[in-house]
Design goal:
By secondary structure, this protein is α/β, with parallel strands linked by helices. About 55% of the residues lie in helices and about 5% in strands. It is built from 22 helices and nine strands. It is a multi-pass membrane protein.
Length: about 525
C-alpha cells in the first residue's frame, strides 16, 4: 500500500504551484480566509454542500495561506485513496493485485488532475474508498462496531459532498450478486439509514440553493463515453488495453454464495453512482464528472483483476503445454500404501517430481505488471504535463491579476461583468489595491455572499456618470454580445459602457478580458430619474 501512496504523492506534488487558480479554487481560497461566523453566514445563502470543506480549508490556511497550502489536502487525500485502493485489492484478491490497482490509480490522469485541485473532490474520493474498505470488512466480520464505523465514515464523507451518498447504491449492488444472508442486509440497511438521515439537513438546505447548478446540461452518450475514458485512460492505447482487462476482470462478478468478490465490489463502485446520477440528470441536470470522482477507485481494481485473470490463464496454458507436466492429482496421506505399493507390470510406479513454481505465482509476473503500469504512465506523461499548465483549467485568475496589477493605477475605477468576475479581486486583492469598485454595495464576507452585493442599477448609473474612464474585468463573450446577463444592474452597466464609452485597449488573459473604456466626448450620461415616492 505504501508504494502506490508514494507514487500518488509524487505525482500530486509535481508542479503543484501553477502560479494561478481557476474560479472554483479561487472561491475556496477567498472563503477559507474568512472567519468561521462569516463562513457560516455564507452557507445560508450558497455552497452549503461545501461547508465542511470550507471549514477544513479555513484551518489549513490559518497555518499557511496560499495556493499550494490550499491544494495540499487534496494531494494527501489522493495518496490515501491510492493506498486504500491497494488495500481493497489485497483483501479481496492478493498482494500483487492490490499493488497493480493502487499504482494504476496513482498514474491515472483524472486522479492526478483532482489531486491538484483546491476543492473537496479528492477528499470525497478518499472517504468513499475508505468506506468501501470498511464495508467489505463489516460484511466479513459482521460485528456491530464494524458496521458503525462504516456508517460514520460514509456519513462524514457525504457532508463533504452530498452525492457521495450514491456509494450506498454501489454497495447494494455488491450485496445482491453475493447472495448474502438477511442479517447482513439488515445491518447494512441500518448503517445506510443512519447515513441518509444524517444527510437530510444538508439536502434540505442545498435544495434551496439549486440555482447554483442551473448551468448544467443533461448528460448524453458522449458524456458517458468521456467518463469511461477518464476512468480507464484518455490516451487510445492505454484505454484499449485497460478496457479489455476491465472486461476480463468483470467476469468474476459472482462467486460462491455469501462471498464478496473483487469484481463484485469494483464493478458497482465504478458503474452505479455515475449511472444513477446520469439517469436522475435527465429530469434535473446535476451531473458533472467531478461529482462522482470517487467511482474512479473501482476502475483500477477491475483492470488489475483482469490482469490477474490473464496471468492465471497464461500460467495454466504454460503448464499444460509442457510434456510430462500435466498430472492427475495424487492421493495424500494414504497410509495403506507404502512408497512402492503401486505397481505397473510388476515395477514400482515412478512418481513425478513436484512442479516448479508456477507462472501465476512468480514474482516476475508482479514485476511485469508494475512495468506495464510504468509504461502506461510514460504513455500518458504528456497529458499529465499539460495538466500542470494553468491554461488547462477553464480560466486562470492568477494571469488576470497580473495584468490588472500592471495596468491599473491607484484610484482607477473598475467594473466587473458579470458580478462573479469580482472573484479575481477577492482571490488576489493585492492586484486591485487602490482601485475603486464602482458597482459594489456591500463586501462579500460581510454580506454572506460569494462575490458581494452590488448597488442598485440607479446608484451604479449615478456613480458611472462621474467617470471619464473605467477599467472593465469581464467575460469576453459578454462584451462581444454572445450572451445577455439576467441581472438588471449588470445589464445597465453594459448598456452605459456601449452607449457612452469607447473601448481603447484590451488584454485577454486566462479566459478573461481586461479592457479600458474612455467616455466619448460630448456624451454625458443622463442623470438618473428620481425615485418614486408613494
Amino acid at each position: 500500500m505504501g508504494v502506490p501512496a508514494l507514487v500518488m504523492l509524487a505525482v500530486g506534488l509535481w508542479g503543484l504551484d501553477r502560479g494561478g487558480m481557476w474560479r472554483d479554487e479561487a472561491v475556496s481560497l477567498q472563503v477559507g480566509r474568512r472567519t468561521v461566523p462569516q463562513i457560516w453566514l455564507l452557507l445560508h445563502d450558497v455552497d452549503a454542500v461545501h461547508g465542511l470543506y470550507y471549514l477544513l480549508v479555513h484551518a489549513v490556511l490559518a497555518v499557511r495561506p496560499g495556493e499550494v497550502a490550499l491544494r495540499l489536502p487534496s494531494v494527501c487525500a489522493a495518496a490515501a485513496t491510492a493506498a486504500l485502493v491497494a488495500a481493497l485489492g489485497i483483501r479481496l484478491s492478493r498482494p500483487r493485485v492490490g499493488l497493480w490497482a493502487g499504482l494504476l490509480y496513482a498514474v491515472a490522469p483524472m486522479a492526478g488532475h483532482y489531486a491538484q485541485e483546491g476543492r473537496s473532490y479528492a477528499l470525497v474520493a478518499a472517504g468513499a474508498t475508505w468506506a468501501t474498505l470498511l464495508f467489505v470488512r463489516a460484511v466479513h466480520r459482521g460485528s456491530a462496531r464494524s458496521w458503525a464505523a462504516y456508517g460514520a465514515v460514509l456519513g462524514l464523507t457525504c457532508w463533504l459532498h452530498e452525492f457521495a451518498v450514491l456509494v450506498l447504491c454501489a454497495h447494494a449492488g455488491t450485496l445482491a450478486p453475493a447472495r448474502v444472508g438477511g442479517r447482513v442486509w439488515r445491518r447494512w440497511a441500518c448503517a445506510a439509514g443512519g447515513v441518509v438521515v444524517s444527510l437530510v439537513p444538508m439536502a434540505v438546505v442545498s435544495r434551496g440553493q439549486a440555482a447554483q447548478v442551473a448551468w448544467l446540461r443533461r448528460p448524453t452518450a458522449a458524456t458517458a463515453e468521456g467518463l469511461v475514458r477518464g476512468f480507464l485512460g484518455p490516451s487510445g492505447g492505454v484505454y484499449a488495453v485497460c478496457l479489455g482487462l476491465a472486461l476480463a476482470g468483470a467476469a468474476g462478478l459472482v462467486g460462491r454464495r455469501g462471498e464478496i468478490t473483487l469484481a463484485g465490489v469494483a464493478l458497482p463502485l465504478t458503474v452505479v453512482p455515475p449511472a444513477v446520477l446520469m439517469l436522475a440528470s435527465q429530469a434535473s441536470p446535476l451531473f458533472v464528472d467531478r461529482y462522482v470522482l470517487y467511482a474512479l477507485s473501482g476502475a483500477p481494481l477491475l483492470v488489475a483483476a483482469g490482469a490477474e485473470r490473464v496471468a492465471g490463464v497464461a500460467g495454466r496454458l504454460r503448464r499444460s503445454g509442457r510434456p510430462g507436466r500435466c498430472f492427475l492429482p495424487q492421493p495424500r496421506n494414504d497410509r495403506s500404501r507404502g512408497p512402492n505399493a503401486a505397481r505397473v507390470d510388476g515395477r514400482p510406479e515412478k512418481r513425478p517430481s513436484p512442479p516448479s513454481r508456477t507462472l501465476s505465482r512468480s514474482p516476475l509476473v508482479t514485476l511485469a505488471g508494475v512495468l506495464a503500469v510504468a509504461l502506461a504512465f510514460l504513455h500518458q506523461l504528456p497529458l499529465l504535463r499539460a495538466d500542470r499548465d494553468p491554461g488547462a483549467r477553464p480560466d486562470d485568475l492568477g494571469a488576470v491579476s497580473r495584468v490588472v496589477a500592471r495596468e491599473l493605477g491607484p484610484g482607477d475605477a473598475v467594473v466587473f461583468l458579470p458580478a462573479h468576475a469580482r472573484n479575481v479581486a477577492l482571490a488576489y486583492p493585492g492586484a486591485f489595491r487602490g482601485a475603486r469598485d464602482v458597482a459594489l454595495g456591500e463586501g462579500a464576507a460581510g454580506s454572506g455572499t460569494l462575490y458581494g452585493r452590488e448597488a442598485g442599477a440607479r446608484e451604479v448609473l449615478r456613480r458611472m456618470a462621474r467617470l471619464d474612464r473605467v477599467w472593465v474585468v469581464a467575460d469576453p463573450d459578454l462584451l462581444a454580445g454572445r450572451w445577455i446577463p439576467r441581472n438588471r444592474t449588470e445589464r445597465a452597466e453594459l448598456a452605459v459602457l456601449r452607449r457612452y464609452f469607447t473601448g481603447r485597449q484590451e488584454v485577454l488573459r486566462g479566459g478573461m478580458a481586461v479592457r479600458l473604456y474612455v467616455r466619448e466626448p460630448m456624451k454625458p450620461l443622463p442623470a438618473p430619474a428620481p425615485a418614486r415616492v408613494g
